[in-house]
Amino acid sequence: MEAKSDKTVSKIDRTIYDQISDISIQRMFHLIRNKKLLLIRPKVTGDAYTELGSYNWAGLVKQRALDLGWDVTDLAMNDASRDNVEDKINDIKPNLIIHYDHGGSFTLWGQDADSLEAAIDSMNVGLLANRIISTVSCQSASGLGPLAIANGATSYLGYDENHAFVTGYQDRFGEAANAANYALLECKSLQEAYQAGLDAYDDLYNDLIASGTMDDLFAANWVLHDRDCFELLGSSTADACPARFQLHCRTGLPDSPVQILCRSGIPDSYVCRTGLPGSVIQCTSGLPELMVVCKTGLPDSPMCAAGPNIHIDRCAAGPMMTIDPRRVREQYRKPLAQLEKRMRLEK
Length: 347
Hints:
Layout (H helix, E strand, L loop, with lengths): L5 H14 L5 H4 E5 L2 E6 L6 H20 L3 E6 L5 H11 L3 E5 L2 E2 L2 E6 L2 E7 L10 E5 L7 H7 L4 E5 L10 H16 L4 H22 L2 H15 L1 E5 L8 E6 L6 E7 L6 E4 L8 E4 L7 E4 L8 E3 L4 E7 L4 E3 L9 H14 L1
Parallel strand pairs: 2-3, 2-4, 4-8, 8-9, 11-17, 14-16
Antiparallel strand pairs: 1-11, 5-6, 6-7, 9-10, 12-17, 13-14, 15-16, 15-18
Helix pairs in contact: 3-6, 6-7, 7-8
């Protein structure tokens, strides 16, 4: 493709800045949710807790997550080995980790070769830093949870004593245990999720008490036990769906989609899907200037320097488009400055 002359590019550039008054700087950027779930759910042969209860409860959580648009990595049964758990946390960098299985004071159990294996414990608890963890298991909120928070985890939902269910009532216990996780998947705060869990246990307890049968009364006592050992540690205001910015380039030729994610501290290159061969966009992090350059179809590799956590969704297919805050008209500098401030706060 023939490169454009400096005169042509200059004319296009001037045209874009003449049109900047038609663009709302604020409207160019939208907050979207980054939702990555790591689900850990062993199922050991002959183990009633996982076979009758927790494995199936986790399956319901998985389906809810998929319905809500989450990117789900499911470590089920023997895939829930310690090595796999560690590798997936490092690889996919989940926002939310949900675990269903046995636990101990300082252990979340996984599975390898149809046997329990410690998946997360005091030796690798640092992997939980900057993440939200929710577990339906025994005891871990008494030891591992506080240790995780001390090592940088954002929040931890779990049980500080044994979590139990009564055989024959496992589906109803599962509904109550899942309530907090459903709320997390809906991007509600940890406090809202915790309260949803408490409310679900209360509702089940009241229903069982109202029936008055001996079996129901026995089950109700265990519902009350689970409720009373359910704990929230760490931040109560956080949610499991961190925000990122989405940018729409609204000038130039008709929009063509691209897929670009600016990862903080990691320069990445992606092919710009404009139908123009050889177009590459490289994203770098940092915010000394808010600038977006989309140069599609030109020999040069274009650069997007919009800062960390900026997702470029669509770019105009014109030869060059630049938004430089120093050249934006005066009336649009204030909203642009406000946008920069918001972006820094979101880091």
